[in-house]
Structures are given as C-alpha cells and as structure tokens.
Design a protein that fits this description.
Helix content is 48%, strand content 22%. By secondary structure, it is of the alpha+beta class. It folds into 2 domains: 5-50, Ubiquitin-associated (UBA) domain (Helicase, Ruva Protein, domain 3); 58-178, Elongation factor Ts, dimerisation domain (Tetrahydropterin Synthase, Chain A, 2-Layer Sandwich). A hairpin with a 2-residue loop joins strand 1 (58-66) and strand 2 (69-77). It is elongated and about 65 Å long. 33% of the residues are buried.
Length: 179
C-alpha cells in the first residue's frame, strides 16, 4: 500500500510523532488513522518501558492562579533540548489547563483526568515519551487554595512556586516571598 506524504503529515499533526514513525504506523495500519494512532501510542509505552531506569532531570514548570486557587505542574524529561521545544511547552500548558478545569486535588487525580478526546493525562505523558524518545514523567503537581494566591516561575522555567496567603497582600510582597 502506498502512503501519501499528506497522510503522513496529517498523522504527524494528530500525534506529534516523527515522520518515519508516522509512515511506519500508517503502513502497518494499512492507512487506518485510528489504528495508526494506537500503534504510535503502543510505541510510546515501549519507549517508557525501555527508559524506565533513566533519570528525567530536565523539564518545565508551569503555574496558574485562578481565583483563590493556585496550580503548579512539572513535566520532566531527560534533556534540556526537549524541555525547550515549543511542542513540549504546549503539552505542559495543556496538562495544566486540564488540571485547572478538573480542579485536580493531587498528582494521582490529575493523572486520571481525561482530555476532550478521552485520553488520560497519564496516557498523554506516555504519548509524549513516544514522540520524543525520552523518558517523560509528571514529576510534580500541587494545588493550593487560600484567600490570596501567587505564583512564580523562574526565567528558565525549571523552578517555580505557588503560595497561599491567609489574606490579600500587595503584589510586590507576594512576588518577593515567592522568589
């Protein structure tokens, strides 16, 4: 079966996987996009299993304050190269948005949250690992609820903090404490 370049690009946009991985998955699935996506997800699980002993010491931190709640998420990876990728940052922010929308209380609750397509955050992390070929893990997630919340992420996006204060304070003080 001949696989068209347009089909490979379509699957690549759907999954974020590499061009050759998409082409191989489409060939194996005989052009069926749903089956090809499943093949790519399974490949992600194999990558996760192979790299389980690796250290994911790089990554990205994202925070968000909504009303009287603050959220922080750290998605870890193996290399700084992956952590600085725009697609990786988009994934981190998408996971944080899912956490906020579900008001996930802790890491385990967040891993079980489903996106609009029915995939859990845990599956999204595994899929991201298959896309990058690196060990990817949800290293940290927390939510704070207080009368006044503040969040800070360092310029390198590797360090961040969220704080809850028992009363409203001025922004400069909150920022100084968070730093």
């Amino acid at each position: 079966m001949e696989i068209k370049a347009a089909d490979v690009m379509k699957l690549r946009k759907m999954t974020g996987a590499g061009m050759m991985d998409c082409k191989k998955a489409l060939m194996e699935a005989e052009g069926d996009f749903a089956r090809a996506q499943d093949i790519i997800r399974e490949k992600g699980k194999l990558v996760v299993a192979k790299r389980a002993d690796r250290n994911a010491t790089e990554g990205m931190v994202a925070t968000k304050v909504v009303g009287n709640k603050a959220y922080i998420l750290c998605l870890a990876c193996e290399t700084d190269f992956v952590a600085q990728n725009e697609e990786y940052a988009a994934s981190v922010n998408a996971m944080l948005d899912l956490a906020v929308a579900a008001d996930a209380a802790d890491r385990d609750a967040l891993l079980a949250v489903k996106d609009a397509e029915g995939h859990t955050v845990e599956e999204l992390v595994t899929e991201k690992s298959g896309q990058t070929g690196e060990k990817i893990e949800l290293a940290y997630y927390a939510r704070v609820e207080a009368p006044y919340c503040h969040a800070y992420v360092h310029f390198n996006k590797k360090l961040g903090t969220i704080l809850g204060f028992n009363k409203e304070i001025d922004e400069a003080t909150a920022h100084a404490v968070a730093m």
